[in-house]
Amino acid sequence: MNVFLGIGSNIGDKLQHIEASLALLQQKAGTIKKVSAFYETEPWGFQSDDTFLNIVAEIETCLSPSDLFAACKNIENKLGREQKKANAYQSRPIDIDVLFYGNEILKTEQLAIPHPLIQERLFVLQPFCDIAPDFLHPILHEKMSVLLEKCADKNWVKKI
Questions:
Q1: Contact 87, 72 (CB under 8 A)
Q2: Which structural domain range is residue 7 located in?
Q3: Domain holding 149: CATH number?
């Protein structure tokens, strides 16, 4: 199954964290097919002096959605991510979000696919459109390039 992951970091050696996450994903989750350009971005949903480095990666996996989610959480933990203390955003060395799992639609207590905030996040849409601008959102029924044009997010996103 082809899946898309959003990967970001805003603590420590951001580039190294993302590169390490890609290497671990290749080992534990599947074959990396495409990776977007790197983008420096403003924190979204919380205040921090530390900017983010963000990418979107497309991988081919044999893992189920729940196993892929578990693999992503395991990689985050291995790279030093601490679990949220509250239900709020915070700075982190690595964050891996399952954005799409093919065209599947899934909602469990731990996982929602497609990720419910994709269309609101310029830091996801911009790198996503580097690798799959014509991908059709299975719920919104619009291409990612159209969602990027419509996105009201005012945070800055700068290609590195």
A1: no
A2: 2-159
A3: 3.30.70.560
Structure tokens at 56: 């979107």
**Number of domains, the chain:** 1
Which H/E stretch holds residue 144? helix 144-150
Rounded Cα distance, 20 and 15, in Å: 9
Q: Tell me the longest C-alpha to C-alpha distance in the chain.
A: 38
CA 22 to chain CA centroid, nearest Å: 12
Residue at token pair 């949220």:
84
pLDDT recorded at residue 87: 62
Residues 88-107 have pLDDT tens digits of: 677 789 999 999 999 999 99
pLDDT (tens digit, 9 = 90+) per residue, 47-85? 888 999 999 999 999 999 999 999 999 999 999 877 665
Return d(Cα 160, Cα 152) in angstroms, integer: 22
* Cα separation values, 154 from 62, 131, 143, 157, 159, Å: 37, 22, 20, 9, 16
The pLDDT, as a whole number, for residue 128 is 98
- Output the pTM of the full model: 0.94
